[in-house]
Amino acid sequence: SFAYFTIKDRLPQILTRVIDTLHRHKNEFFEEHGEKGVEAEKRAISFLSKLRNELQTDKPVTPLEDELPDAALWNQYLDYQRNLSNGNGEPSWFQSPWLFVECYMYRRIHAALAQNPPIDNFDVFKEGKAQNFFESQEAVIALCTYFQELLKNIKDLDEKQLKEELFKLLQVSLWGNKCDLSFSAGEDSSQKSSPLQSLENLVPYILVNDMEQLWSLLVNAKKNRTERSNVRVDIILDNAGFELVSDLVLADFLLSSKLADEVYFHGKSIPWYVSDTTKHDFNWTLKQLQSANHMWMSRCGINWEGNLKKGVWVFCDHMFWTLPHDFSNMAAVAPDLYAELQKSNLIFFKGDLNYRKLTGDRKWEYSVPFHQALNKFHPAPLCSLRTLKSDTQVGLKPGQGEQIQASEPEWMVSGKYGVVQFDAGL
Fold it and tell me: Which tens digit of pLDDT belongs to each residue from 137-151?
């Protein structure tokens, strides 16, 4: 299965890159922290080499031994997996659900650093994320320029034009999800060309397209808002780099067009899946934009910093996003986060990992309704913006998946297809 090749080939590759990254920074650790830094680097590398060996030789998945805040929740989840195996021995790397062991690997990478001060705050994926951002410069410039030009006349646009612009920026945010470093095992996956030029050609590859429903939801929320009630949109972020910029443009458009009054961004509290957005990545991106020597890029950065200061944009992270649980467990495991999302008028879930957690990463029939696969996870109306990079997909028309499968066996994992898939909730 695709899961098997991911665990067998892609994950060890990612671990090897992490180990190489630490090696390369050895001198920097020495300059900053002296011998202590070098000792910490050695310990982290030995921890990671052991982890790589466990993975490649299909050893049992062992409980976490660190004292980090989420360790108890992880170990409870391990017990749950152990009970699922019906006495068929300990869950091991190749005999466990893919989503669980993949999350577990990233959590162990985090532990390798967190347990080894003074390098405990080092993000082993930071360089790759920065490189992705710089290599996507042309696309970022094209998008920022387009958007700043659009803002000049946004007040004069009628409903039809606003709707067209919303659909455009939703698609840019959708296809921005192709820039995923965990999928390419850290190889270059930047967005080189202007994303706006290819949108027309990509429409046939959107397998579920619920943009009309999003439009009516936002327009109705705007009409029904009262003095006291703000229209709130939440974006559960995925990758840093170009994808994050495309999400920020979408968020700014929602505010500028008065379709929303506030946008909450949800990122990861620890480095995750190579290129996922942390608070540091979020702030770093705004700083890079502000200081860019391109007028419209820097205008975007300055405006967005302003949105944060005014409180109309809020960045939050929560450890639930880096647990192995399906989202249908959120109300039980992280009731505070679930309650927070219930305040939203619309939640966007970006990317493939979020889709897998929304649908429990099961091998559903393609035509099972999205609402059913969500397994009672309905904090608010929600929409998945996702390009397909793993073999879980629901909500297709009867025969649609089988038809593509016949001519393109790799359709579910190539990133070529996408969905804008909406669920109104209860």
Answer: 999 999 999 999 999
